Structure formats: C-alpha cells, structure tokens
Amino acid sequence: MDRATGNMKASANLPNDADAAAAAKQHSVPHRTRIKLCGLSKPEDVAHAIDLGADAIGLVFYPPSPRSVSVAQAVELVHDVPPFVSLVGLFVNATPDWVREVASNVGLTLLQFHGDETAEQCESLAGVAGLPWLRALRVAADTQPADLVESALKYSAASGLLFDTHVEGYGGGGKVFDWSLIPAELARRAVLSGGLNAQNVSDAIHRVRPYAVDVSSGIEVAGAKGVKDHARMAAFVRAVRAADAE
C-alpha cells in the first residue's frame, strides 16, 4: 500500500466535524437548572416540594410579607427536610440579632438579602450567621445591562445573584422583567425570578440559561398570596425539567 492510499484510508477513519460535534453532545452532561420554591409556609407544601425534587426551599423572614413565617413555624417546616436540599432564608433590611436568631434555630444553609443592604452589610450579616448569601437585584424598566454588571461586581462576594422585577415595596410582585437585560456572562451566577410560572419558565430558561430559577407567586392559588397550589408546583417543576431536556 503506497503512502497516498494509506493516508486516504486513515482520513476515512477520522470523524468529521459533524460527527465530532454529535459525539461530544451525546457524551456531555446535560444542563440541569436548579429549582427554588419560595414562600412556603405549611409542612405539606414543604413535603410536596421535596417529593417534586426541588433543590431549595425558600422561607420568608420578613414580617410584613403575607408569606412570612416565625422561627417556631420554620423549625416545624424544616424538621423532615432531607440532606442536600438547601434551606434559604429571605431577609429584608434585617437586624443582626434577627438573622442570628433565625439562623441558629432554623438550620438555614443560605441567606437571601432582598432589601436595601449594601455589600458591606450583606457580608456583615452573613458573618453573624456564618453562612453564604445571595443578593437580590431588582430590575426596573430603565435598568441597563451595564447596571447589572456593576452590581455584580459590587456584590462579588455573594454566592449568586437573584434577578427579580422591581416593584413598590420589597419582595416579588409576580411581574416579569425583560430577560434580555441579563448579560450572558452573569448567567452562571444567576437565579432568575420575577413572575415565573409553568407557562413561561421554559422560554426564560432557553433565553437566559440561568443557574437556577426561583418561583413564589407562580405556584400559588390565584389571588391568595402565600397559599401554595400543589398542582401548580408540580407543573412548574415539570416545565423546568422539560426545558432542560430540549
């Protein structure tokens, strides 16, 4: 066999670009969007979230909120939460004493600051609890991608950034913001929130590719803040998993 023939046969055995891409896709680990179900206030809701495979349970420790729970309620809620399910405590302009009381009694694994806390205040409060933290960034109609990049740099010590719609007061208002405002370089740190539900979360995941999604009002009985609908909880989780599989 001459050299030319040998080279031709060797080339024939090499995968082309399309074959290589297909093989890489076949053996790559599929993306799995993490799911946080927030504002839970009843043991049966927490149990259902766990059965659905939620990655994180969100508990609200902001008394003015209709979804807020007391320390005693929270202790009951987390009693049977298994390992590897994160317990996230949401705080709004909280005092160090309140964060310390909640964290020491409830067994939180992550703090979420949703008020006017500066980066220094977030780090100080997290230090009191000895826990990592998320910073909620509220996206308004006039927010620009550069504003979010600047905020991300300011809160660089945060474990992640939760993007929510800017509304009057604090906490989510069940409203969607323009997802295209989130720069692609922030997607890996992004927890996408703000008006998500089973009908729109697939589109949100495809457009943003966030690390996680966070839902509260989108899994509630219509018009009943804080009252979770188990069918809507299940539909939301199914929609996220379907989006990951596409």
Automatic annotation (TrEMBL):
<feature type="domain" description="N-(5'phosphoribosyl) anthranilate isomerase (PRAI)">
    <location>
        <begin position="36"/>
        <end position="238"/>
    </location>
</feature>
<dbReference type="GO" id="GO:0004640">
    <property type="term" value="F:phosphoribosylanthranilate isomerase activity"/>
</dbReference>
<comment type="similarity">
    <text>Belongs to the TrpF family.</text>
</comment>
<keyword id="KW-0028">Amino-acid biosynthesis</keyword>
<keyword id="KW-0057">Aromatic amino acid biosynthesis</keyword>
<dbReference type="Pfam" id="PF00697">
    <property type="entry name" value="PRAI"/>
</dbReference>
<dbReference type="InterPro" id="IPR011060">
    <property type="entry name" value="RibuloseP-bd_barrel"/>
</dbReference>
<dbReference type="InterPro" id="IPR001240">
    <property type="entry name" value="PRAI_dom"/>
</dbReference>
<protein>
    <recommendedName>
        <fullName>N-(5'-phosphoribosyl)anthranilate isomerase</fullName>
        <ecNumber>5.3.1.24</ecNumber>
    </recommendedName>
</protein>
<keyword id="KW-0822">Tryptophan biosynthesis</keyword>
<dbReference type="InterPro" id="IPR044643">
    <property type="entry name" value="TrpF_fam"/>
</dbReference>
<dbReference type="InterPro" id="IPR013785">
    <property type="entry name" value="Aldolase_TIM"/>
</dbReference>
<dbReference type="GO" id="GO:0000162">
    <property type="term" value="P:L-tryptophan biosynthetic process"/>
</dbReference>
<comment type="pathway">
    <text>Amino-acid biosynthesis; L-tryptophan biosynthesis; L-tryptophan from chorismate: step 3/5.</text>
</comment>
<keyword id="KW-0413">Isomerase</keyword>
